């Protein structure tokens, strides 16, 4: 059996090689630095499976080519599968599996780090001190204790985030069409409009679906409290970038922290420090003093990478042995079927 791993970085090699050694599975692993697309799909020739990440393109055209090349399994080394055309995958008979949970604490803790960096402006203070400037003007923050935090999506990550923010003494409200009882320990479920009106900080923890694309848009931004902060460590497509830029320019949003960006595919995970970046909206965002952008790294801990590699190989083993796989997206998930129209990030 051969697995072709796309968008592979050195850290993917390290954690996948370790997981392979631990599992004892007989498997040839091919690492490709390029992301999967129409242009690179030929690398997968004669592989049994491809392993893809958040920005690989797995649309109908790519799936057709993969099928011709003999590939039969799509292994996502992430939770979200918005970049896979599930209808086409099912039509071609692919096995598609993801890693639904890998250290949700890592992602939630990162969201908290962004909240506090943005609030207490540690990123600005760090730059100042390096230049010998120890003044405090412009660095004023607020105490989290007693503030209202709105959480959109109370799945694994949303609940971890709620637990931590509850520890800071925040009042928590959440919106989720499928209410998770776990969250009730920390706060109250409310309608989306009420959440936006009440929250000092809004944090997004829902998947990118047809129904959630641009959940933060011109209208919902207007519903947010003046001076509220927005944090997105989920998927870039949840936020209408042009609308948040306007809201920042109007001084309505007081701060924005993004670990994900709706057009991140052409920029993230590569070094553009000597290029001209053509994405004007992204560069406008970078220019605001009250915006923090990071390159989709909330998951990036040793714990998460260990889990990702090990569950991905377990999914491969299930596929090769023809035994039921709990992470088989096309078998188990009603949500996958409901939301099967793919959304590019
Ligand atoms: P999860 O499936 O456990 O939870 C998602 C929650 O969102 C569910 O409770 C679901 O009911 C809810 N939801 C669905 N539609 C909604 C809507 N319209 N409005 C509000 N909530 C809605 O997923 P999770 O493990 O908590 O992950 C959440 C998201 O975080 C993933 O979909 C992924 O996009 C993102 N993520 C990002 C990183 C990163 O490194 N930045 C890492 C892992 C996951």
Automatic annotation (TrEMBL):
It comes from the Eukaryota. Residues 5-328 form the D-isomer specific 2-hydroxyacid dehydrogenase catalytic domain. Residues 113-298 form the D-isomer specific 2-hydroxyacid dehydrogenase NAD-binding domain. Keywords: NAD, Oxidoreductase. It holds the Pfam family 2-Hacid_dh. Belongs to the D-isomer specific 2-hydroxyacid dehydrogenase family. This is D-lactate dehydrogenase. It comes from Exophiala mesophila (Black yeast-like fungus).
